[in-house]
Amino acid sequence: MKKLLFSALVLAAALLAAGCSDEGGISLSSESSEQTVSKAEESLDLTALDFVSEHFTISANEKWERYNEDSSDCAFSYIGGEKDEYGATLLSIQRMDNPNMALSDYADGLKEMYSKVYEISDEGEDKVGEYDAYYFKLTMPEDKVGITITLKIVATETQAFIFHITYLDSVYEEIMPEVNKVLDTFKVI
């Protein structure tokens, strides 16, 4: 099951990193802020579960651990549950410069890109912390394991953020309050 989940995550990360090149589409490229993070961590009293960059901050509680994912600016893996199914829960964040695009434009571009591989099972307006967001849930056709990916998008005047949440359907009701606790700490700098 973990191999299948990993394959789905790799495919999702590859799609997220690749972006769209069609005219009017969006390009998603992540700029790493490791040097900025190191300087910020040296000057602040942070735990390993606090992430600070020159662009945003986010924190997780002891039920999460930092996860190294090359295609994102920051990622967490859930470790707080007794069921093995909880270990499949990942939350990653990718930041990009906002070339004066509205939140709906980002959502439309991502839906177009992801709908080539996934089925969109739900979508709508949402919040990430204090910020307006748009979300959609993605499922793989004929998925026998029951993996869902929820994307939440936040756009400010100068930046956009994609929150990529992967989990097993069997733990959705239990895991989403934990995911939302982390999302509620998100702040744009």
Task: Describe the fold and architecture.
The protein has one domain: 3-Layer(aba) Sandwich (Protein Transport Mog1p, Chain A), CATH 3.40.1000. 27% of the residues lie in helices and 33% in strands. It has helices at 2-18, 34-43, 103-114, 172-183, and strands at residues 50-52, 56-59, 64-66, 74-78, 90-97, 119-128, 131-139, 147-155, 159-168, 187-188. A 7-stranded antiparallel sheet has the order 3-4-5-9-8-7-6, sandwiched between helices. The longest helix has 17 residues, at 2-18. It is globular, with a radius of gyration of 16 Å.
How would the blueprint of this fold be written?
Blueprint: H1 2-18, H2 34-43, E1 50-52, E2 56-59, E3 64-66, E4 74-78, E5 90-97, H3 103-114, E6 119-128, E7 131-139, E8 147-155, E9 159-168, H4 172-183, E10 187-188
Antiparallel strand pairs: 1-2, 2-10, 3-4, 4-5, 5-9, 6-7, 7-8, 8-9
